[in-house]
Amino acid sequence: MTSAILSATPTHTAALARFGHALSDPTRAAILLALRDAPAYPSDLADALDVSRQVMSNQLACLRGCGLVEATPEGRRSSYRLSDPHIAAALGELLQVVLLTDPGCCTGPTCTCA
Known about the structure:
By secondary structure, the protein is mainly alpha-helical.
């Protein structure tokens, strides 16, 4: 076995599983991508992603629970940002990988990826 495999701890595995769960939903993935550039208010995110404020609230709660975003109270509102700058870099790297895959591989009723 390689040292990389041996150095992965249960904590690493759990963190990657949370990150994968967050990315498994298109709305959550879009929120994370939107927050790469700057913090945002939930209402602005909801409008930009064309989802209800309730859906946005639920998705942000999930992302907070996964430890990927954090809220900053600003008076009666809160803005959200990525909890760590490494997340933005990781998302950028993941986008590079996604763009290399065959976009036609997972379309239609025969797709087994989902």
